[in-house]
């Protein structure tokens, strides 16, 4: 079994300071949060950009500042979001990929997102993938329901995607698949051989699905984007607190936690050094 890759989703596009006072917003705050998560055991940081007032943006220069702030403090894998926020144009969402980060998310379909609809037209998805391929960025295929996984499998059969792919199962979102062991087990059962996968449990699903992924040989995403609580009624003190719990649990289960370079090897990325 590979070592555990922990991803820290630091801020997202929807969470506010009113919901989580410790939410990192500025590039410097995100850089510091990334360093704390790295020290706690994270190998990947998943980043969204915000304006100074906290509203989401896909501005390329803001992402450039975020990536620089992270890399100045630690050598984690930086994974940018191409999801952005609901209502953004595809061109807006794609902008940070041109900075050639090591990884970027690629949502494999549309999904009801609370009271909104997160739209991913098939033609736009293909454009996103080609841009990632052109810039040498490894996609993380975002799966919110089983139909999205079916789409990814069709792309593999057609040769649109090739080689082992990395999937992120986002479970527990209103409008997507439930955050249950049964949902996770089904998605895992459909993966082609050689795939790697991460689970991102939303809200209360984060800890139990993370624990299950450790045992099943998958990887785990935690952080304020998906869950602002440490336990019911108790806000987490930092993203790093959530990372440290998963790292501690994994070690207790006798599964070592991957360093960033070990994660690069598992995911087929070239070391930055």
Your description of this structure?
The chain is built from nine helices and 14 strands. The mean pLDDT is 96. The longest helix has 14 residues, at 27-40. It is α/β, with parallel strands linked by helices and 273 residues long. The protein starts with 5 loop residues before the first strand and ends in a 6-residue tail after the last helix. The chain has a single domain (6-267), classed as Alpha-Beta Barrel (TIM Barrel). Helix 1 packs across helix 2. 36% of the residues lie in helices and 20% in strands.
Name the CATH superfamily classification. Answer: Aldolase class I
DSSP, total strands: 14
The number of helices is 9
Shape: globular
**What value does the average pLDDT take?**
96
Strand coverage percent: 15-25%
For the largest beta-sheet, the strand count, sense and barrel status come to: 8 strands, parallel, barrel
- Helix-strand topology string: EHEEEHEHEEEHEHEHEHEEEHH
- Spatial extent as radius of gyration: 17 Å
Computed structural class: alpha/beta
- Provide the helix percentage: 25-40%
Which CATH architecture would you pick?
A: Alpha-Beta Barrel
In the predicted model, the low-confidence regions spanning at least 5 consecutive residues are none
Question: Which properties best describe this structure?
Answer:
single chain; 273 residues; 9 helices; TIM Barrel; alpha/beta
In short:
The protein has 273 residues and is α/β, with parallel strands linked by helices.
């Amino acid at each position: 079994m590979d070592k555990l890759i922990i991803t820290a989703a630091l801020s997202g596009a929807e969470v506010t300071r009113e919901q989580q006072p410790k939410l990192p917003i500025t590039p410097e705050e995100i850089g510091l949060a990334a360093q704390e998560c790295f020290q706690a055991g994270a190998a990947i940081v998943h980043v969204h950009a915000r304006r100074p007032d906290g509203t989401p943006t896909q501005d390329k220069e803001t992402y450039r500042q975020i990536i620089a702030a992270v890399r100045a403090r630690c050598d984690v894998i930086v994974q940018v979001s191409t999801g952005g926020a609901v209502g953004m144009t595809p061109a807006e969402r794609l902008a940070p990929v041109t900075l050639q980060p090591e990884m970027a998310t690629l949502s494999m379909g549309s999904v009801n997102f609370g009271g909104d609809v997160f739209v991913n037209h098939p033609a736009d998805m293909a454009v996103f993938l080609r841009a990632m391929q052109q810039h040498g960025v490894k996609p993380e295929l975002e799966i919110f329901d089983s139909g999205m996984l079916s789409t990814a499998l069709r792309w593999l059969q057609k040769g649109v995607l090739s080689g082992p792919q990395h999937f992120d199962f986002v479970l527990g979102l209103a409008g997507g698949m439930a955050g249950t062991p049964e949902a996770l087990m089904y998605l895992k059962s459909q993966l082609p051989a050689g795939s790697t996968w991460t689970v991102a449990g939303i809200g209360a699903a984060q800890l139990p699905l993370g624990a299950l992924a450790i045992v099943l040989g998958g990887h785990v995403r935690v952080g304020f984007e998906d869950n602002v609580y440490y336990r019911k009624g108790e806000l987490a003190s930092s993203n790093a607190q959530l990372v440290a719990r998963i790292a501690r649990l994994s070690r207790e289960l006798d599964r070592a936690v991957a360093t960033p370079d070990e994660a690069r090897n598992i995911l087929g990325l070239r070391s930055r050094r």
